[in-house]
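Troubleshooting entry. Yesterday's outputs looked truncated, so today I'm pasting the complete records for two proteins to confirm everything comes through intact. If either block looks cut off, that's the bug. Protein one:
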Amino acid sequence: CLPLANDCEITMEARVHDLVDEKLQTWFARGVNRISVGVQSFDTQIRQCLGRVDPKEVVIENLQRAASYNQAVIIVDLIYGLPYQTVEKFVDDLKIIDDLPIDGMDLYQLNVFEKSLLKKSLDTGKLPPVATSAEQAEYLKTAAEFLEEANYKRLSVCHWAKSNRERSLYNTLAKTDADVIPFGSGAGGFVGDISVYMQRDLKKYMDSIDKGKVPIMFMLRAPEFASLYKDIQDQTESCGVNLTKLAKKYNKELMQLETVLDIWTEHGLFTKKGHMYRMTIAGQYWQKNITQSLIEITKKFLNAKTSINEWLTEKAMNTFKKKIEN
């Protein structure tokens, strides 16, 4: 047995049909104290077009069953921008979550991957078009306003707590410089400035264990300033940027990045109060792009021989625009 802390968060990523008594009792007996369920939508038509066969009534019943044990935090994942989804149906989903005896929710925008079955169904007209970027932003705005009015606690850009039991530790700490120790075939993590990736091939993984060897596929040393980049990501995951903290911890010249954030503030992605830049709903929607752009700009700035103001004003928006276009 591993010497785990008594407040360790142990999450089971589950589907609706997993929430039966036999499995639930086994999970709890083995120490699971958090269950994250990929509901995506409660609407039966939307679920079935995604290949999720359980209707709304079964989803609700199974979530109630899991919560009735009072042995674990119960979290639901929702996606916005789905085929057949409307703002009205999405609000119905939020109301269902608010009525259920669960502890929080995660919210993600739809990503349509090339060569996926969903992409094929959309291209052939088997499914109606998904939401545009502007429509997806409206879904996020609707959710943020609903959850704020319902007094949910915002844990990160994608995570909300309904009760004090939900901490979402992995989701928040994995974006920082905390150590993440990988276990299992295909797992990845990092310890200090070393990234570690375990063997993906299950046979090779098991053979290594049988021989008494650690089944590591490869390791990489993190690049220079990796800790800074993680701190930037940690801040943007919390829907804001505090350059003062970054400058005090790493390099006072980082305060020059105000040039970038001021440009983005002028374009409606942030509001500024003192040294704190807070993301607007538009900024929250583009959070991943903002994070990638800010890290890329920071890398270039740290390697530059000139003042950031001499070359960055134009690059700040150009870099971000390219991210959006891609």
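Protein two, checking that the full record survives here as well:
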Amino acid sequence: MSHRPVHPIIAQLRAARETAGLSQEAVARRLRCHASTVGSWETGRNSPALDGLAAYAAVLGYQLTLTQEEAPTP
């Protein structure tokens, strides 16, 4: 089974989870999913849907924000 590279946002959330001393199981309970789901996100086996990513971030006290970059001047 091939793994995708872990997205930088997921890597940051994993680091935040570990810094907070939370296990994958603890996060999964709050998300109402299996710990293996969180583990698969953190290893690149699977990617969360946008709502799952937002929920994962929220559990750790983060909020996803979309910003528009200025278009380069030709």
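Both blocks look complete. Sanity check on protein two: The chain is about 55% helix and 0% strand.
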